[in-house]
């Protein structure tokens, strides 16, 4: 009988690669996407297409509104940084950081995993090409996993030993793309841009676009989605 896994699926490059990895490992995929007030909502449509193509067992879109807190260029009327080089991206936490986003997302995933009797939550965080986000670091994931196993009835009663699975945590963007290509990931379906046009075209200048373009170039190819 297939094991259930919850996969956080944004519709971007990393989460789509993670979904493919979880599927290759034999998990039955329960994908979770968030409509949280992000300016780049085109990614939700990408997530729907990706989930359908992957024939996941379930795909839920969770509606929350992080715009009420502000503090991020992804949820408020703030300029998305453009044209930064990679060295700049690694300095400090950028304005595209959404306060506590991964903690919020993982909490929803934890609740679903408990009801599914699943011990595996997959998330596409990365500690190399991650633009300085504090909730993408290994120490954060380790701390959350410890907390998660203290937070649920299934955990404290010994029926669940939850693992936060981060197969991309120590890979470069080029390595992630290479891994995905080996799993036949169709990156043309994904959306990564922080500030796309009204018709969904990528800006090619934000941090996410630049890291993505460089990753494909390192694999000797152009980004199929741009």
What does this 3D model show about the protein?
This protein has 226 residues and is α/β, with parallel strands linked by helices. The chain has a single domain (3-218), classed as 3-Layer(aba) Sandwich (Rossmann fold). Helix content is 38%, strand content 12%. The chain is built from eight helices and five strands; from the N terminus they run E-H-E-H-E-H-H-E-H-H-E-H-H. It has helices spanning 13-24, 42-54, 86-89, 101-116, 138-151, 153-156, 173-182, 207-218, and strands at 3-8, 27-35, 58-63, 120-122, 163-165. A five-stranded parallel sheet has the order 3-2-1-4-5, with helices on both faces. Helix 2 links the parallel strand 2 and strand 3 (58-63). Helix 1 (13-24) packs across helix 7 (173-182) and helix 7 crosses helix 8.
Total helical elements: 8
Shape label: globular
The counted number of beta strands is 5
Q: Give the SSE string.
A: EHEHEHHEHHEHH
Q: What is the CATH third-level topology name? A: Rossmann fold
Q: Write down the Rg.
A: 17 Å
Q: What is the helix content? A: 25-40%
Any guess at the CATH architecture?
A: 3-Layer(aba) Sandwich
Average pLDDT, to the nearest integer? 93
Strand order of the largest sheet: 3-2-1-4-5
Work out the strand percent: 5-15%
In the residues, how many domains can be counted?
1
CATH homologous superfamily heading: HUPs
What is the makeup of the main sheet? 5 strands, parallel
Oligomer: single chain
